[in-house]
Protein 1
Amino acid sequence: MSINPKREVFASLARVGTALSSPTRMEYLELLAQAERSVEQLATLTGTTVANCSQHLQKLRQAGLVVGRKEGLYVFYRLAGDEVVAMLSAMSRVGEAYVAEVDRIVRLYFAHKDELEPVPARELLERARKGLVTVLDVRPPHEFAAGHVPGAINIPVHDLEKRIKELPKRREVVAYCRGPYCLMSFEAVQKLRKKGLRARRLENGLPEWRAAGLPVDAGG
Amino acid sequence: MSINPKREVFASLARVGTALSSPTRMEYLELLAQAERSVEQLATLTGTTVANCSQHLQKLRQAGLVVGRKEGLYVFYRLAGDEVVAMLSAMSRVGEAYVAEVDRIVRLYFAHKDELEPVPARELLERARKGLVTVLDVRPPHEFAAGHVPGAINIPVHDLEKRIKELPKRREVVAYCRGPYCLMSFEAVQKLRKKGLRARRLENGLPEWRAAGLPVDAGG
DNA sequence: TTAATATTCAATCGATCACTTGAATACTAA
DNA sequence: TTAGTATTCAAGTGATCGATTGAATATTAA
């Protein structure tokens, strides 16, 4: 059949690469890493047409990165597994290390990344178990319900000001969101500090937390 | 300047994805992970024309995955860093887990992967330090010289039969090559066993060994 | 300076890609 | 069955990609 199995494997892996070669699809993957979504939901969230979204999803499916589940009229897509999150993280590390453009944007818009003293995942787990911090999930409720850090409180970042009383005043707050390129936890920390609370960011979002094998609760 | 930094980052990461969307470039990356190479060397090793090879290399360079070093008439390219190897490993894990085609090929041609009882890297490091195994690098001498497992013996797989006497008879041999999709160490183990030696494979190649932070010797 | 060599550039062609548009399919509820 | 909705399919367009070819550039040696 084949003379060179290595090249066959590379051909298949190149299809995975092709799936990762579109900014739109990267955004889909970030969203699907939070929770499963129907085609229309994804299209609405990203501002694309349904037909175009469907086509992108099929490319991702053919590459093995997402799987679909049909339920009645709807088809719900989700990431194939945590390995996909790990792969995206590895791509991010390459980008931040070697792509000048990525470094530039991160320095410009995520400058607070270091200033805000991000909390490593395992450190947060320990301190949360000891009751030393309040864990705050600032994503939309649907994504919170699909999986969140055990014990976390869900207040979407846009509701934060009016619902800030729900947070204990003295304990430090650690906020997290969708991932390293999601601005919601940055905004949240700024708002919390402005109100006089001690607040920091989790170093990454929930998908990376889950991919690291840390505990995740669902529902709520 | 920009309204959505996330999309800008994804746009840059998509360029990395584009660089990974060609089987030819995947092969270049595997070779450059072993040792730096000139354009012509790479072209010869992969059977492409020099002009085509040069164009591919520039795509890889624009994506930040490789860097070039000019020396006289030659330009030597190499991987930008170990993060690139980690990223390729993450892609391989996704492929093996979720792409049926990859799984099929691996089962078909690398079926011995489990039968040959691959040795984990850290286990090899320990056993080599205790002098319990002979470490055998079956790659071409140029790649061996650019970096190898400390204490390894270099016998290219094609010379193995006639140089087999160079190996201690009683000690188990652990062979390694370029990486998980390189057949050389599989061949080597088969040849060694046919000659009555105890032989196994290292689970991965030298690039993964180096990326894991394990010690590497050069020269020789 | 001249000749030789390694690499890159530029122009070209066929194939694929992203996106749009409009129709077809699959499923649900009345 | 019929109407309504979510998704997919199919065709078309402009853009990009991979590879080829031939010329241009940069460096070295005579």
Protein 2
Amino acid sequence: MHSPELLKGTLQTIILKLLADHGKMYGYEITQKVRDLSDESLQLTEGSLYPTLHKLEAQGLLKTKKISLGKRVRKYYFLTSIGQNTAIKKVEDFEAFIKTMFRVLQISPQSI
Amino acid sequence: MHSPELLKGTLQTIILKLLADHGKMYGYEITQKVRDLSDESLQLTEGSLYPTLHKLEAQGLLKTKKISLGKRVRKYYFLTSIGQNTAIKKVEDFEAFIKTMFRVLQISPQSI
DNA sequence: GCGTATTACCTAAGACTCCAATGTATTGAA
DNA sequence: TTCAATACATTGGAGTCTTAGGTAATACGC
């Protein structure tokens, strides 16, 4: 587990990129995907996931669609076209930020 | 300028690493160093710097020494031995976090 | 000698983001 | 049938940073 405070600020980027890569996903699926891709070192809890999803929806970056599976209703989230552009932009911002941080912290990019 | 929210969680790491690399520094000097190293894309404001410095001091990671320059008193901050270990550890944590994020965001390390 | 920019210290109030805890309900496996 | 996993979500609060403000010395151009 990483120091959790580093995750701050990257949540929206992670969610948008996952949706960009995988099309529509439901909340629980997103938490599991992050868990798997990060080898369990990133823990995306529901308490932070759902408020963020709702916020992104309010901003028009994603939409939802409810699918019935027997009695259970599953809620899928997927990007709008604005959301797709934003996903790309956020990832680029993140990369630029990393480059800057490497310079400030004197980390050689080869080391990662 | 990067989206400021990415900076969250990295402040302590930046300060500790700068002090580890440059020995003793005073507050204003730290803000300028960050500004220079980041080509002005990271803005470390005093409102976040000083509270963080004081917090690190309270945790025993750094100590201070006042130097008189005429009428002006300059306050230098420098790492304790615990602080030096912590600086190394924080940078390692950051590197590990980046590796994880690259996997989650499907970013190739070569791209940076 | 005067005004302004820069150097240099710092605090306080609040915004914002995230996390822990909690709640509900369905499904599947033992 | 009971427990773990799946699946949705909210709420209260902790923590972190930003905005804005405050003080004062020094350097520089005019």
